[in-house]
Hints:
CATH class of one domain: Alpha Beta
CATH topology of one domain: Uridine Diphospho-n-acetylenolpyruvylglucosamine Reductase, domain 3
Strand order of the largest sheet: 15-12-14-13-17-18-16
Distance between the termini: 45 Å
Largest sheet: 7 strands, antiparallel
Amino acid sequence: MDLRAALEQAIPGLTLSDSLADRVCYARDLWPRHHLEVRDGRPAEHLPRLIVWPTDTAQVAQLVGWAQEQGVPLVPFGAGSGVCGAVLPAADTVIVDLKRLRHWKLHEEQLLLEAQPGVMGITLEEELGRLGFTVGHFPSSILCSTVGGWIAARGAGQCSGRYGKIEDLLERLELVTPTGEVVELSRRARGPNLLPLIVGSEGTLGFITRAWLRVQRLPERRGYVAWSFPDIEAGWSAMRRIYQAGLRPPVARLYDPIDSVIMRSGSVKTAGPRRGPRARPAWLRPLVRGALKQPGWLNLAIRSFEGNLLGGCTLVLVFEGSAAEVEQDLAAAATLARLERGQELGEGPARRWWEHRYSISFRQAPVFQLGAFSDTLEVAAPWSKLSALYRGVRAALSPHVLVMAHLSHAYPDGCSIYFTFTGAAQDEARALALYDAAWRDATRAVLAAGGTISHHHGVGRSKAQALAAELGAAGPILRAVLRSFDPARICNPGNFEPAPGVAASASAPAVPPAAELGLDELSELATFGAETTLEEAEQWLGRRGFSLGLEGWSGLDGTQTLGAWLGQGCPGAPDLRADPVDTLVVGLVARLAAGRSFVVRPAPRRATGPELAAVFRGTQGRMGHVERLTLRVRRTGAPRARALPFQGEQEPALSAAERRLLERLEQTLKEVPA
């Protein structure tokens, strides 16, 4: 019996297809390297065996149970807008399109949205807006992405400066595990939490079939302003001051000089209706390809114009709240911007950006039509490492491609840099080699500067080689987590591994060591040995003008070590639901029971698969022994951010299903060799 007949018999009524047209459409996501292969005449590689469209959780559970028995690999599919090659099926793969799970419900009293994974982003926000609410998650891909995709890739929206990333908005989810069990996982302020393992797991730990996200009421007012700075360092210093002063503009985006010129040009779309493809003069394609074949000279020429012919850097800020709050925040931001030689440009550039904030999603296709290629690299680092990250990646990319950059998704401890690069070669084989070389050198530069290779696009196959270097000794731990949830490895097997045919790096870069013990004042991060007590840490910080920022010291045991405090879920720490942009544990060094030691280097959020540091918070030391902690600390007397409301349960009880998953994870981690 063939696979289709077997599945039709096992799950009557399940919609499925094995047509060539459907198999070609579902063979890839929007990884730009795929586009080069298609342009090279290879559109039909990596075809799946079947595509299925379940309609509810029960059908998904039936499907997973059947696949487990038959050993058939499954790959979840949302809207296909991922850009890292997380969808790359094999010949026996069944693609599971979840867009028919598209119902949602607003729980207004609790400020919670219950949504299935196939809900499209733009539809959701428009319908919620008519009810007076917002999720606050506005990725550039909102026109072509789903709730499930946001969670699977650990996405960030354009208003993350106030509402946080998707992991900050998620309160609970329903998961069909790779063994076919339907479980609900909940967020807890003190832990233990399994949600950080599922968010960003890119379909490797099961199927998300329902999610509960926090929502907010639509703001009374939105305030816009833009600032010009003489150089990008002054601009990001202003961003740092703004977020460390407790201000939370939902949008804070800093553009380098060439990106500022492009940003000021507005949308790429025409004002009126247009039929058919846009006509381009015949001479444009060879001109663009010829210019891009000399990227070193092109980048050098652009750098020589920076701050002169091109002008300075542009910072776009958007604030939300009541009319009084917006006015107060705009005034406070102006004071801080002027400390960094900022010159106010008025609200025009910020309003223009807001009106065209999704246009970037339409800019890639014209580049490929002109015979070139384009891609983006979003990375992140603490403020103290941002200069090395920015300059290192630009230097690494410049010999290969034209490179631009902007900063977005800022936090008190650091920021994301979003590089856009464009290149061309004589033929597609050389273009693929050039593309791979650009990625290889850029990610090596990210790691050398102490950054993380992905802030919100995920890993897929695109960044898998660099992921291995970033994880280092933690690589086997990631594999153990995958094995714990999915012993048969039927869920998106091969993800987080390099795609076949991608040129491998000659040697892995040396990963920077863990953060040194001490205080990074610029990033407001402190690194302590886990045996340091709470009182010792607070006194040491106090002498330097900082604090752990804990609440209710009278109820805390100051003689407790930081390691034990982490194991108990960090009692006294503020609940980050009130300020999702902030964080607490930024990095650590830990040792598992069998002796393997690994490092999670400090970074302001990351999207590099399951969040491995989460297994130590609130788990009473069951998963291993923490040796060093990097914590976000606060200057004494610094103002707190305006709190977001939350009406839900702070510490839901641990369910039996969650307990079983934790026990299985604990046992698997004990088996990781030293």
